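fyi for ur records
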Amino acid sequence: MTYCVGLMLDRGIVMMSDTRTNAGVDNISVFKKMTTWEVPGERVISIMSSGNLATTQSLVSTLDERTKAPGERNPSLLEAPSMFQVATMTGQTLRKIIQDSSRNGNRATFTATLIVGGQIKGSPPRLFKVYPEGNFIEAGSDTPFFQTGETKYGRPIIVRAYDPTMSFEEAIKLLLVSFDSTIKANLSVGLPLDVTVYEKDSLSVTQEFRIRQEDDYFNVISNGWGAALKVAFSSLPDFSFHKTGGSS
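which gave:
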């Protein structure tokens, strides 16, 4: 399992992914799940993936190879005229890889889901969620963020605290709380975390870094959030059987 989040802001896009993969509690590894292609001044494209590791690695390798030797039958992300075409191209490639891999096996074994974000010169930043079937949906004002992988534990804090006007720093703090909640609840999600920040119309990667287990700020967030939850819980009114109609 994994956990990835792409967040649309007025200022741009923040993307964060964990790096844990596992085939059982005694077979845990670290693999990068976020890949970025950049042509400074022209385009930035980032893809995060969850699902079967062989499928997602094959997808990224195929897309990357096409950027080095593009052709009519093998279109390149670096030549796509729009982010819509990037999402289309990525979805078609993912669908074909899954189909080819599952001819002699269970399709569900090879499934994967992607979050694709970025900007191409002349168009606004866009964020998409791409499904194993190759189709996709786009983020907007009603759905300003996408999650994939182990989503349920980290979703509530994003839903409650997200604001499109927040700064990149605030967005990263929010996502770290979301990831910490997920990591605490599910052993299949874990550090290090990869982060890519893209500022609208910059057409270059704004920030790209990895947060590791020993990161001081992450540990402050993790410990502080736990303590804050205890304080908030204690401040709520005490439950009373009498007030709720319970038997006396």
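Residues 242 and 248 are 7 Å apart (CA to CA). thats all i got for now
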